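>> received
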Amino acid sequence: MNMVNITVCPSCGSKRIKKVRRDWTGEFQGQTYIVPGLEFHECPQCGERVYDRDAMR
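>> returned
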């Protein structure tokens, strides 16, 4: 995965945003999906999540 290094949260401006890897669960048209080990940036201040292009595929 070729991930961009994000250092500031685009929503709240916090510099505490960090890269995490965890299972992601979502729902689409009534069906639950799990993506194991998805890597993304998450802000502990406001909860914003930033996904790179590879994560969105």
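>> The chain has a mean pLDDT of 91.
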